[in-house]
Amino acid sequence: MSADKSARERAELDWQIERVERQEDEFSEARQRYERSLEQFREQFHAVGRHRESSLGERMQAGDTGAQHELETRQELLWQVHRYVEETSEELEQTRSRVRRSFDDELDKLAKERNALPWE
User: Fold this and answer.
1) Containing domain of residue 18, as a range?
2) Do residues 120 and 2 touch, judged by C-beta distance below 8 A?
């Protein structure tokens, strides 16, 4: 019985496929951590804003004219933070899509190479 002449190459390609799959998993985990971090940033910023808005409301009721301007400025800042988070999320999704295609292409290429090896 003769040994499989392509066994070594097949094993190397299997290892490369596993490496790409690990990289894909690592990227996915990093992306999820970043998404959670981004959402936590938004939530914390809004929590601070709600507290400040309450204080500004009290000042406005007391007749503080500067409180209205500060409230408008704060609302603009909240909008900017919201827009930043949304734009960053969209960019992250575009990056995820590109990276996913790259991983898929690499996995397809390696699988085709491995499957093309003769079993002798």
Assistant:
1) 1-115
2) yes
Calpha distance 31→93 (Å, rounded): 9
8: in domain: yes
Confidence of residue 1 (pLDDT cuts 50, 70, 90): very low
Q: Tokens for 82?
A: 């919201």
Assign 70 to helix, strand or coil: helix
**Number of separate domains in the chain:** 1
120 within a domain of the structure (yes/no):
no
Two structure tokens written together for 51: 């507290």
| In the predicted structure, residue 81 carries a pLDDT above the cut 90 | yes
List, in order, residues 6 or more apart from 36 with CB less than 8 Å away. none
